[in-house]
Amino acid sequence: MSDIVNGLGRAGAYGALGVVLLILGIVLVDLLTPGNLRRQIWADRNRNAAILLVSALLGVGGVVFTSIWTTYDDFGKGLVSTAVFGLLGLVMMAVAFIVVDLFTPGKLGALLVDPEPHPAVWVTASCNLSVSAIVSASIA
Q1: If you write DSSP's letter for every residue of the chain in order, what string do you get?
Q2: Whole-number Å distance between alpha carbons of 40 and 117
Q3: What is the pLDDT confidence band of residue 7, given thresholds at 50, 70 and 90?
Q4: Of 97, 41, 87, 35, whose CA–CA distance to 60 is shortest?
Q5: Does the pTM exceed 0.85?
Q6: pLDDT interval class at 117 (50, 70, 90)
Q7: Pick from 79, 101, 100, 88: nearest CA to 14
Q8: Which is the most buried residue in 15, 49, 126, 129, by most CB within 10 A?
């Protein structure tokens, strides 16, 4: 029975950390794009903004999953590792966003929240998922 209780405690801690990292991902996307992200997605039904946010959340989730899956036997060390790699994934996604913005015409953030569908959202979403895959691979 103590194994189950111990496992529940660990799952709760990793789950809480994952939720914090996902929230940070939402904040990051909101900071990188103009306007209020929550309003753009839930009130204005902006698909570009939703695709961008989805890709960031999937990326963060992938990094957190990989970090937990390959976690150290030491629970504390595994929790810290998950936090560090999750934050690294977020930072690298922001850097990729900034680099793509530098090398493309116009302001990327404005294109990505335009109500009209724009192919740039798919490029940026691909960057998010690719960066998270690279960070995930570095964990294993």
Answers
A1: -HHHHHHHHHHHHHHHHHHHHHHHHHHHHHHHSSS-HHIIIIIS--HHHHHHHHHHHHHHHHHHHHHHHT--SSHHHHHHHHHHHHHHHHHHHHHHHHHHHHTSSS-HHHHHT-SS--THHHHHHHHHHHHHHHHHHHH-
A2: 14
A3: confident
A4: 87
A5: yes
A6: very high
A7: 79
A8: 49
Closest CA to 67 of 56, 52, 83, 54: 83
Residue recorded with tokens 């979403």:
125
Task: Please report the sign of the dihedral spanned by the C-alpha atoms of residue 16, residue 49, residue 29, residue 27.
Answer: negative
The alpha carbon dihedral of 116, 117, 119, 121 has a sign of positive
- Amino acid present at 80: V
pLDDT digits (tens, 9 = 90+) for 70-101: 887 889 999 999 999 999 999 999 999 999 99
